[in-house]
Design brief:
The complex is a heterotrimer of chains A (624), B (287) and C (276). Chain A has 3 domains: 17-129, NADH:ubiquinone oxidoreductase Nqo5 subunit (Beta Polymerase, domain 2, 2-Layer Sandwich), CATH 3.30.460.80; 151-205, no CATH class; 274-623, Cytochrome-c3 Hydrogenase, chain B (Orthogonal Bundle). Chain A has 22 helices and 17 strands. Chain A has helices spanning 2-6, 16-26, 49-58, 119-129, 181-184, 206-211, 220-224, 274-280, 286-291, 298-313, 324-353, 358-378, 416-439, 443-449, 457-462, 468-471, 479-482, 503-530, 588-592, 596-600, 605-615, 619-623, and strands at residues 31-33, 42-44, 64-72, 79-87, 95-102, 217-218, 232-238, 250-256, 259-266, 387-388, 391-392, 399-402, 409-410, 412-415, 551-559, 562-570, 582-586. In chain A, the strands form 5 sheets. Chain A has a 5-stranded mixed β-sheet. Chain A has a 4-stranded antiparallel β-sheet with strand order 6-7-8-9. Chain A has a 3-stranded antiparallel β-sheet with strand order 15-16-17. The longest helix of chain A has 30 residues, at 324-353. Among the domains of chain B are: 1-59, no CATH class; 69-180, 2-Layer Sandwich (Alpha-Beta Plaits), CATH 3.30.70; 255-282. In chain B, the strands form 2 sheets. Chain B has a 3-stranded mixed β-sheet. A 3-stranded antiparallel β-sheet of chain B has the order 3-4-6. The longest helix of chain B has 38 residues, at 249-286. In chain B, 44% of the residues lie in helices and 11% in strands. Chain B has helices at 4-26, 35-41, 92-96, 134-138, 167-170, 174-180, 182-192, 198-207, 233-247, 249-286; strands at residues 58-59, 69-73, 102-108, 115-125, 144-146, 164-165, 171-173. Chain B is extended, with a radius of gyration of 25 Å. Chain C is mostly helical and 276 residues long. Chain C is built from 9 helices and 5 strands. In chain C, helix 3 (91-103) links the parallel strand 1 and strand 2. In chain C, helix 1 runs antiparallel to helix 5 and helix 7 packs antiparallel against helix 8 (236-246). Chain C is globular. Chain C starts with 23 loop residues before the first helix and ends with a helix. In chain C, 44% of the residues are buried. The chains are: A alpha+beta (624), B alpha+beta (287), C mainly alpha (276). The interface between A and B is large, with 74 and 72 residues. Strand 13 of chain A pairs parallel with strand 1 (58-59) of chain B, so a sheet runs across the interface.
Chain lengths: 624, 287, 276
């Protein structure tokens, strides 16, 4: 009570601008406003970054670090900077703070003690940008292998197939004599060795460095005591080719008997340079590439990117926000995607638990019905590429109709509204209920999952966990409510929360979320009917190379797997560049894995796959 | 009681199991793959039997389905410009292509070196193409479209024109596009103001020649404009042939389709023959 | 005897010489053998990227590869006949893939599913992406598409079955796994400063020597011949062949093999054209 009387406005509840004011007052030398055109937040002197970050977390209450990423401003400022987006777990706008470093010998103090969730993101910045993080206990490459030449995301690093700085390439038109890129490259394959490359120094120490320090050998202390069973520590490698790692993910675990002592995720086996390609692409080009991030829920990836770029565009001239119908269709697609994803996730969680394929088959069969709708509307089952800046690709078709083109084609013809209504009001609820009956009460599942993979609330927040992983640990944090976008404010739904933080709760949470999604979809149907015939796109649809106003933007959506954020920077051409300067994806699967080692500690080796399955990762997004 | 949950779960499995047979009962005395049954089976309220017997029956793909792009050319029996490209090599598709897999060589007048709105060569590297459909979406001339033919599996990719589709392989007649996407083609025609290429329509509007207008709905039959009969005999014949086509527009479609299939079959046979020859050659070379 | 093409025995009209009577069983045995092989192709349970999702959808109830005897997806390479490379192959991942391929017992087949596995795909320009699985292991069937739909995948599987059907027991080239000695494993790439294919060592050494001598090294320019073609405007089809032939890749053996293959393809194409 006395506290409140002394300070009537508690700093952890003030809005972002006031918080920045407090911060500047406390650190007058270290904290400056970011005055660049189109930028927000503050620039922090890197020598005092740790103190400022501690204040941001403890005094101002921004306890959830959503994203940390590096940007290389070669040719603009000749410096690199780390950009941090900190949020309050109670919701609201982000506090954006940045720390700058020269490009040579770049280093920025690690924030791992303040937000442990920054671990992988700092390793990624080290790997791809070469920024070193003093204070980081495990600073090594994460996506590329140890020994790889250079830091590829730096603007002056060119890959072997480098053709031009920006797309579109000149060589395609009007004199587009076709050739394969291999034929351009002197090596015949896309390799780029350093100029002083020496075969005699050649060594493949990737594996050795990976296993170093994993605690091989006999536990000496246990040998001394007579009572205890003498055990040997054993290093076991899971993946990258393993049926239950959901792709090409790899874990190296140290076992004591059957109990896990340490677990280290190894990734990068599907690192396909999404961000490097994304920075060469034009704004429009990136839309189909986002499909391939989380390839199970392409629609919501599209939405996140569209939101980020629309944020930037809204600062420029001649911008009209998406029409109401466009927003309705977007929410329809995104919520259907959530169901698709959760069906898939539950099916494969059960696979990991040993119920090999029967639950997954039932889930996939229901998923196909949604995919049919996606295919008829967007043109592809998986890679929808449906959202555009300012709307969607095309309106929902009158009929979901397929005509015969090939031999033996079987034709189908459904009325779209009828199909959707039936899907949303009957088929999908029935499918969710069936899955519920099928699995929820099963004693085997309960025994395998209750109390396993426990993630406490505080750890979940500190490790920047997102999505079902966070909400399964009792935090009602959902971007749709915390920082609403699209038409979510006018929709009636609850944020599903479970409190035990184990695999079982994460499973139950996904069932809950599917039910909430269905609740949203039932509200979408009348809106869809009401807006029929209205425009689904604002602006001029023939503009194929939009110019985007200068500045930065962070657009985020609640993806089925967690918070998906796009950090985009538009720099260069004063008229508004055609290409993003920086295109970063805050991938929920990637950051959720930070806490995997913590969750697995002390569990049995057979539980690891189940814990991994309950996080629900997809490698396209993890490795990008 | 312990075990009830498992039994409940197994109940679901058993229901699924029996549903398949209940479903089978519906087909007693009927052909398993008749069209109405297929539609119901693959529809939203299906239970039980769900499998598509792929090579024997295929789920037809919807209109907006996108696979590898193709180029629209005029039909071979087009009275004015048979086989003419719709593409004007304006260069928008190679610009919007995200992985930059489209290559166009623009035609030049051999004398004046001025560009002619027509591609000399057109390539799409389908090993890079991501089937995103942006080229088709932004083409102002409706000249590049996404194909529906997904049966492209091949034994070799480096051969000429195998996975780098050239103009010959990419070009498909406009009637094919109308066949695979009747609604979309109609919508586009309404936007253009006629069934023909937009440049032709503009020209005809200037000269006052009749334009083939799309009907009020997508499935209204194609009515070509009445072309004034010229005096030369061959021209009259073509006009007559055109007139016949008007009357039999409905019947013409299946004939056309089978012709298309025949061409496809032909291509397939050729490919197989080539492969067989390759085998034979390899054997001969070794022995 | 030796000049006789045993393949002709498949033709029923072929007059069977007396001395061949005893061998007649071989051809029908081939058929039975191939029928049993193609009806139980067990793929490896192995997904790489986006295409893997479609592969799983293909194995699920709607498309159901069990109809082709392919439902048994084995997690161990030792038990599988077919590797479906379903997705983008990265340089980091190609090492385990080649290792897995070497561990598969003969006869083994590889399907490159989708654009990425066939030839690099949309991510081809990236620094960590391999331009096609066939750069490292022989690929039997390519399925274009990004991603191929389940039906397209099954179409590819059928193509593989056809390929198996075409392999004759009478021809040792078709069934080399009955030959003498073990088959040579594919050399496993090394992750150095960039990926290093041991088969390219000669070329790399040469380049390294050039670098040491201060010569231009790793120049990325349009090869001179390609420039000529671009200015002279040789017809496009010929340009493809000529540019490839003119590329400066120097691993002589691989290059010779490639040239030979290309020439063969050209000859085949010409024969086809002449026929039609």
């Amino acid at each position: 009570m006395t506290d409140q009387m002394i300070a009537p406005v508690r700093p952890e509840t003030v809005d972002v601008d006031a918080a920045i004011g407090i911060l500047k007052e406390r650190f007058p030398d270290a904290v400056k406003d970011d005055t660049r055109e189109g930028y927000v937040g503050v620039v922090v002197e890197r020598s005092q970054l740790v103190e400022v970050a501690t204040a941001i977390r403890d005094e101002l209450g921004f306890d959830y670090l959503s994203s940390a990423t590096a940007v290389d401003y070669l040719g603009i400022e000749d410096s690199m900077e780390m950009v941090y987006h900190a949020y309050r777990i109670s919701g609201g706008k982000p506090l954006v703070f940045k720390a700058q470093t020269p490009r040579e010998n770049s280093s920025i103090p690690s924030l791992i003690d303040i937000w442990p969730g920054v671990d992988f993101q700092e390793r990624e910045a080290y790997d791809l940008y070469g920024i070193s993080f003093p204070g980081h206990p495990n600073q090594k490459r994460i996506l590329m292998w140890e020994g790889f030449n250079g830091h590829p995301m730096r603007k002056d690093w060119k890959e072997a197939y480098y053709e031009a700085e920006l797309k579109p390439f000149e060589s395609r038109w009007p004199k587009g004599y076709v050739r394969r890129s291999e034929e351009l490259n002197i090596f015949g394959k896309n390799v780029a060795y350093p100029a002083d490359f020496d075969l005699s120094r050649l060594s493949d120490d990737t594996e050795a460095s990976l296993y170093a320090g994993m605690g091989l050998g006999v536990d000496v202390e246990a040998l001394n005591s007579d009572e205890e069973l003498k055990t040997d520590r054993l290093v076991v490698n899971l993946g990258p080719h393993h049926p239950s790692t959901h792709g090409v993910f790899r874990m190296v675990v140290t076992l004591n008997g059957e109990t896990i002592e340490t677990l280290e995720p190894v990734m990068g086996y599907l690192h396909r340079n999404h961000e490097k390609i994304g920075e060469r692409n034009a704004w429009n080009h990136n839309m189909p590439f986002t499909d391939r991030l989380d390839y199970i829920s392409s629609m919501s990836n599209n939405l996140g990117y569209a939101l980020a770029v629309e944020q930037l565009m809204s600062r420029g001239m001649r911008y009209t926000p998406p029409t109401y119908r466009a927003e309705v269709i977007r929410v329809l697609m995104v919520e259907l995607t959530r169901i698709v994803n959760h069906l898939w996730a539950i099916g494969f969680l059960l696979n990991d638990l040993g119920a090999f394929f029967t639950p997954a088959l039932y889930a996939i069969a229901e998923r196909e019905k949604i995919l049919d709708f996606f295919e008829a509307t967007a043109g592809s089952r998986l890679m929808c590429n449906y959202m555009r800046f300012g709307g969607v690709f095309k309106d929902i078709p009158e009929r979901i109709r397929s005509t015969a083109n090939l031999l033996n084609d079987k034709v189908r013809d459904f009325e779209t509204t009828q199909y959707l209504t039936q899907l949303i009001t009957e088929t999908l609820p029935r499918a969710v209920d069936e899955l519920d009956t099928f699995l929820t009460d099963s004693e085997i599942i309960k025994t395998r999952t209750i109390g396993v993979g426990y993630l406490p609330t505080e750890t979940a927040i500190a490790y920047s966990a997102a999505g079902p992983l966070l909400r399964g640990s009792g935090v009602a944090y959902d971007v749709r409510r915390a920082e609403p976008y699209s038409i979510y404010p006018e929709l009636d739904f609850d944020v599903a929360v479970r409190y035990n933080g184990d695999i079982y709760d994460r499973y139950l949470l996904r069932i809950d979320e599917m039910r909430e999604s269905l609740r949203i979809l039932k509200q979408i149907l009348p809106r869809l009917e009401r807006t029929k015939g209205e425009s689904f796109f604002s602006g001029n649809k023939a503009v194929y190379m939009p110019r985007v106003a200068i500045g930065e933007a962070y657009g985020r959506v609640e993806n089925p797997k967690g918070e998906l954020g796009y950090y985009v920077v538009s720099q260069g051409d004063p008229k508004g560049p055609q290409n993003p300067w920086r295109y970063h994806v805050r991938a929920p699967s990637f950051i959720n894995l930070t806490v995997l080692g913590q969750m697995c500690k002390g569990q049995k080796v057979a539980d690891v796959v189940a814990i991994l399955g309950s996080i629900d990762i997809v490698l396209g997004e993890t490795d990008r | 009681m312990y075990g009830v949950g498992i039994l409940k779960g197994l109940g679901v499995t058993i229901r699924h199991f029996f549903n398949t047979y209940v479903e089978d009962l519906r087909y007693v005395g009927k052909k398993l793959n008749n069209t109405q049954e297929f539609e119901r089976r693959q529809g939203v309220d299906s239970t039980g039997l769900y499998t598509v017997q792929y090579p024997e029956e295929k789920i037809a793909v919807p209109e907006r389905f996108r696979f590898v792009p193709f180029l629209v050319v005029e039909d071979d029996d087009h009275p004015e410009r048979p086989g003419h490209d719709w593409c004007t090599s304006c260069g928008i598709c190679p610009k919007v292509c995200p992985p930059q897999c489209i290559w166009i060589v623009r035609s030049e007048d051999p004398v004046t070196k001025r560009p002619i709105p027509e591609p000399e060569a057109f390539f799409i590297d389908i090993d890079i193409c991501m089937n995103c459909g942006l080229c088709a979406e932004y083409c102002p001339f409706d000249a590049i479209k996404m194909d529906h033919d997904y049966e492209l599996a091949d034994y070799d990719r480096t051969g000429i024109g195998v996975h780098i589709h050239d103009k010959e392989k990419l070009s498909k007649p406009f009637s094919y596009w109308r066949k695979i996407a009747p609604t979309t083609a109609w919508e586009e025609a309404v936007d253009r103001g006629g069934w023909e290429h937009i440049d032709v329509i503009k020209q005809k509007q200037k000269s006052g020649a009749p334009i083939a207008k799309p009907g009020p709905t997508w499935d209204s039959p194609y009515v070509p404009p009445i072309v004034p009969v010229k005096e030369e005999a061959p021209a009259a014949e073509t006009a007559q042939a055109g007139g016949e086509a008007v009357g039999t527009a409905a019947e013409a479609a299946p004939v056309e389709m089978s012709a298309e299939d025949a061409a496809k079959e032909e291509r397939r046979k050729k490919r197989e023959a080539a492969l067989a020859r390759k085998h034979a050659k390899e054997q001969g070379g070794e022995g | 005897m030796s000049s006789l093409d045993l393949r002709q025995l498949h033709d029923t009209e072929f007059p069977i010489p007396d001395e061949m009577q005893g061998n007649l069983a071989i051809t029908s045995l081939s058929k039975v053998y191939n029928w049993s092989r193609r009806s139980s192709v067990w793929p490896m349970l192995f997904g790489l990227a986006c295409c893997a999702i479609e592969m799983i959808a293909t194995a699920a109830s709607r498309y159901d590869t069990a109809r082709f005897g392919m439902e048994v997806m084995r997690a161990s390479p030792r038990q599988s006949d077919l590797m479906i490379v379903s997705g983008t192959v990265t340089k980091k991942m190609v090492v385990p893939i080649v290792r897995l391929y070497n561990q598969m017992p003969e006869p083994k087949y590889v399907i490159a599913m989708g654009a990425c596995a066939s030839g690099g795909g949309p991510f081809k320009e990236g620094y960590n992406v391999v331009s096609g699985m066939d750069q490292y292991v022989p690929v039997d069937v390519y399925i274009p598409g990004c991603p191929p739909t389940p039906q397209a995948l099954i179409n590819g599987l059928i193509a593989l079955q056809k390929k198996i059907d075409g392999q004759s027991l009478a021809n040792m080239d078709d069934v080399p796994w009955y030959g003498v000695g073990p088959s040579d494993p594919v050399p496993i790439p090394i992750l150095g400063p960039d990926i290093i294919d041991p088969r390219q060592m000669g070329m790399i050494r040469e380049q390294a020597m050039l670098a040491a001598a201060g010569q231009p090294y790793g120049v990325r320019e349009l090869p001179a011949v390609a420039m000529q073609i671009a200015t002279k405007k040789i017809s496009a089809g010929a340009a493809v062949a000529a540019v490839s032939a003119a590329s400066v890749v120097v691993d002589a053996e691989a290059e010779a093999a490639r040239l030979e293959r290309r020439q063969e393809a050209v000859a085949r194409k010409r024969a086809l054209l002449a026929k039609s």
